[in-house]
Amino acid sequence: MSETTPPLGRRERKKAATRQALADAALRLFLEHGYDQVGIKDIAEAADVSTTTLFKHFSGKEALVFDEDDDQEAALVAAVRERPDGQSVPAALREHILRTRIDVIADPAFAPFRQLVMGTPALRDYGHRIWMRHETALAQAIAEDTGAPQGDPACAALAHFALEALAVARGQDDPRKALDAAFDLLAHGWHALPGCTRSDP
Amino acid sequence: MSETTPPLGRRERKKAATRQALADAALRLFLEHGYDQVGIKDIAEAADVSTTTLFKHFSGKEALVFDEDDDQEAALVAAVRERPDGQSVPAALREHILRTRIDVIADPAFAPFRQLVMGTPALRDYGHRIWMRHETALAQAIAEDTGAPQGDPACAALAHFALEALAVARGQDDPRKALDAAFDLLAHGWHALPGCTRSDP
DNA sequence: GTAAAAAAGTATAATGAATCAACTTTTATA
DNA sequence: TATAAAAGTTGATTCATTATACTTTTTTAC
């Protein structure tokens, strides 16, 4: 669906292996000693390459932790395009994010990784940034779906807020409940909330 | 309203002067040559202080560009608390943000500054981060206003989205229109939009 | 009014991420 | 097989930021 498919040459195989060795070494060391306690040099040494080689594979220290997920964007767009009949766009996005980004991380096996990322500002920010990269693609998919013009501000807003909903949810005690609250707001608006007195149309 | 009020000692006066000299020199140099072309050393020299002194006044290179606005948060909270009768929370926030963060910047005199910040990823991100710092205070103000419990996820979501609306608006051709679209979404929900077929309750 | 404390500032060196330039080895291919 | 492209290496270099140890200024308390 993307690159040179199955027949990888020896070259690309070795390249991928080096890259993987770097990512593995980095994650292991970060989990063992903490992100700030591990230097680029340590990682390169552990993977038995030079630091310059490391930077040819990864754009920076934080990138070592995140797999550059190409499919993630496709899945997000598909969640909108191929949602079941009768399901609204916000509902489709809520379910997709809940399934792929909240429930998965809730697995106790991911706890140390989760703790590493959320406990390191540089990693939290970087993760958030690459997640938000899907904003324009998602906005476009929503616009197409609803027949709105390219770059319609309402679609752009929904796309942005839907992606941000993940950050909101993660900052709360009960992420699932918080995600529901955020998407209820996006679906029905603040005026639809119970304790919303003093409102004007 | 905050610090040692009028009677500033010589010490604090000089300190403030040094700080201002640094901020002025930084902004001037950044505007002249671009953020990445100016080093910390250049700024310190222009303000005639050592680089160590610079870092005693500012937490980092990006902070030189932004006045650490203490009142900003107070104004945001006040916009919710002291809004006119009959105005909803989203409407109050929309107006406040439009007035203090969109219309002001639209002044052509701010164009170079605006261009500097928006054209420099490090500055754009930093500015966004300090703006989002008001999230919890705003969420609390909203919760108090509506009688919701502390840390209510719907209030947290509204606070987050309302602040993010600024970023959405700035990324569009017509920021004012985009801000309206974003706040319409927050106020009335996606289901209230015209081209919103295939929706479920 | 002076002495001690607190705070601002300086110089210098170190760390750590990221980049640059020049070179070697490996792999693929014409 | 020759050769070009890509992977990797070495070593130096830049730049923001921090640490250490020192000097000067201003305040405050006696």
Model description:
The structure is a homodimer of 201-residue chains. Chain A is mainly alpha-helical and 201 residues long. Chain A folds into 2 domains: 10-65, Homeodomain-like (Arc Repressor Mutant, subunit A, Orthogonal Bundle); 70-190, Tetracycline Repressor, domain 2 (Orthogonal Bundle). Chain A is built from 10 helices and no strands. Chain A has helices at 10-33, 40-46, 51-57, 70-81, 89-106, 111-118, 121-132, 135-146, 153-170, 175-188. In chain A, helix 4 packs parallel to helix 8 and helix 5 packs antiparallel against helix 10 (175-188). The longest helix of chain A is centred in the N-terminal third of the chain and has 24 residues, at 10-33. The radius of gyration of chain A is 20 Å and the shape is globular. The model of chain A is unreliable at 1-6 (pLDDT under 50). At the A-B interface, helix 5, helix 9 and helix 10 of A face helix 5, helix 9 and helix 10 of B. Chain A binds a DNA duplex (30 and 30 nucleotides) through residues 9-11, 14-15, 18, 39-41, 49-53, 55-56, 60-61.
- Note the beta-strand portion of chain A: under 5%
- Mean pLDDT across the residues of chain A is 90
Major sheet of chain A: size, sense and barrel closure?
none
- Ranges of chain A where pLDDT stays below 50 over 5 or more residues in a row are 1-6
CATH homology group of the largest domain in chain A:
Tetracycline Repressor, domain 2
